[in-house]
């Protein structure tokens, strides 16, 4: 699921990495049961792969995510002077995987594979 919301992910917060200091601002939220099955630990780097692409991201183990579902916040993957902040979930969403009537990409449901790096 692309588009995880937190109390601090507003556009301006994501543009300046200094405003996110001390926060885990762009993580892959993963249920504890899934983390155990995949052999992943909190804070570990994981690879997420979809039909559209792949990226490496920090794992955050949380019960806020249902088993079988992963969540990544939107709005990251920006180039800040000299630093790339997080990953851009749009690069993991295929533009042809979309709703038939409106043609809106189905970014809330993107089949993926998660693996240890």
Explain what you see.
With 117 residues, this protein is mainly beta. It has one domain (2-116): Barwin-like endoglucanases. 10% of the residues lie in helices and 29% in strands. The protein has 2 helices and 8 strands. It has helices spanning 11-15, 32-38, and strands at residues 2-4, 27-30, 45-49, 54-61, 70-73, 78-80, 83-85, 113-116. The strands form 2 sheets. It has a 6-stranded mixed β-sheet. A two-stranded antiparallel ribbon has the order 6-7. A hairpin with a 2-residue loop joins strand 6 (78-80) and strand 7 (83-85). The radius of gyration is 14 Å and the shape is globular. The mean pLDDT is 85.
Secondary-structure map:
Elements: E1 2-4, H1 11-15, E2 27-30, H2 32-38, E3 45-49, E4 54-61, E5 70-73, E6 78-80, E7 83-85, E8 113-116
Parallel strand pairs: 1-5, 2-4
Antiparallel strand pairs: 2-5, 3-4, 3-8, 6-7
Average of the residue pLDDT scores: 85
Strand content: 25-35%
Which second-level CATH architecture applies?
A: Beta Barrel
| Widest sheet: strand ordering | 1-5-2-4-3-8
Rg, rounded, reads 14 Å
How far the N terminus sits from the C terminus, by CA atoms, comes to 20 Å
* Number of individual domains: 1
Order of helices and strands: EHEHEEEEEE
Largest sheet geometry: 6 strands, mixed
Helix content percent band: 10-25%
**Strand-pairing-aware structural class:** mainly beta
* CATH class wording: Mainly Beta
CATH topology: Barwin-like endoglucanases
Tally of strands: 8
Shape: globular
């Amino acid at each position: 699921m692309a588009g995880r919301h937190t109390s601090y992910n507003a556009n301006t917060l994501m543009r300046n990495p200094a405003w996110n200091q001390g926060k885990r601002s762009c993580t892959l939220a993963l249920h504890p049961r899934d983390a155990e099955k995949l052999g992943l630990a909190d804070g570990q780097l994981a690879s997420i792969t979809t039909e559209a692409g792949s990226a490496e991201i920090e794992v955050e183990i949380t019960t806020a995510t249902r088993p079988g579902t992963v969540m990544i916040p939107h709005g990251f993957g920006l180039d800040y002077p000299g630093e790339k902040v997080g990953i851009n979930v749009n690069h993991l969403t295929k533009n042809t995987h979309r709703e038939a009537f409106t043609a809106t990409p189905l970014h809330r449901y993107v089949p993926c594979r998660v693996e240890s790096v």
